[in-house]
Amino acid sequence: MKPLTVYEYGAISRRDFEPRIASRAFAELKAFVLPVENGPTDVSACMMLGSKNGEEVFFVRNYVGTISLPCGVQIEILPKLGTAMTAESDLRSLVLEMLRVSGAMRSRLLHASDLQSSVTIFEVFIRIFLDALEQLIRRGLRAGYVPYEDNEKFFKGKLDFSEQIKRNLAHAERFYVHYDAFTFDRAENKLIKSTLELLRGISKDRRNVADLNKFLLMFSEIAPSENYEADLARCADDRSAIEYEDILVLCRMFLRRRGSSIYAGRDRAFALLFPMEQLFETYVAHEMESALVSGWRLKAQSTQLSLFSDAFTLRPDILLEKNGECILADTKWKLLNAREQNNGISQADMYQMYAYHTRFSAERVVLLYPYSEAADGAAGKEYVSEVYGQKVTVCIALFDLMQRLRGEPFAQCIHAGGKTFLPLR
Q1: Alpha helices (runs of H) in 73-205, residue ranges in sequence order
Q2: Which domain holds residue 154?
Q3: Max Cα separation, the chain?
Q4: Which has the minimum average pLDDT: 60-74, 166-180, 321-335, 410-424?
Q5: Are residues 327 and 267 in the same domain?
Q6: pLDDT tens sequence across 132-163
């Protein structure tokens, strides 16, 4: 079954509109996305149920990633850039690169796989997991002494007197004992076994399924984890299993069934979803820091100042400082349109920038949006106001994500109408 690919702000229907899914899949998606009693209040963050021409439709919000429904339908959500001729494979590569930079996925894991793969983001994640597992097996799985307790026919280890009396008063041939066994049946390997079993039931890629079956045979003597959280905690406390560090990141992500926290505890479907606002913000800050002119320092999410006696913390995305000079930059994951009033910039964003400008005594504030053809005319705009003798300047710049993905220097990916708003080399 071919995965359904949809873009941010797109819609999913079950009959009249493209893209569409079958009624059963639509019902499962509805059960997964809509709030449940005593559940998280923001589980509808990635989609909103609405109507179009009298038909129920899911409108996709600004999350990217993948959802796998119990019926087998996979839904892949890709970012919308508003740039013509952008291939799906390039958008997948962009998402994976942003995840790598943001720290949501370990960089060495992402580099271990082919980021230009034509398969879905979810199958790429599975491929990364399988590649990491193969490397681990080549180095050798870890065995060790694991504590056991059981009612045995032979005596070994230490006798548990209270359990012995309770269970074996009429069975003198048995011994309730505690002992340590040297085995591969450790918490780390149990979690890997559980992840393999989970992914085998979800993956649609032939190569991935074949490798999942191959590794399950290798792990046939290892029992799956009976308590994911307990075993994950046990691994976190064990600092000696460094070779398992990468693969446990993936096990944790898969077994908890999410990339973000909004679907915690909802097991009707499998979701790996990431908010584009956070990915964009983290990605821009990371890439900008290495491109700054010498002497400038970058602070991300600075909370050093507040409004109204610390009642409301001011948290600009990027604070640039040098010898008392200050420039603020705030990222907004929104596609501007130069044909709209004020280029589509919201009034709330401008009020926010005014607060930043005045409270930080900044030289300028830069609003940084993703580049798109429709937004090109907004690049380099300056909104200047003088309030009580103080000049406030808010500048508009666009960041071309695909240009950066192709390896162009960060400064060349900033479109500002030929103006220099940021201290970049």
Answers
A1: 88-102, 107-111, 121-139, 161-168, 187-200
A2: 144-183
A3: 95
A4: 166-180
A5: no
A6: 899 899 988 887 666 767 787 777 777 777 87
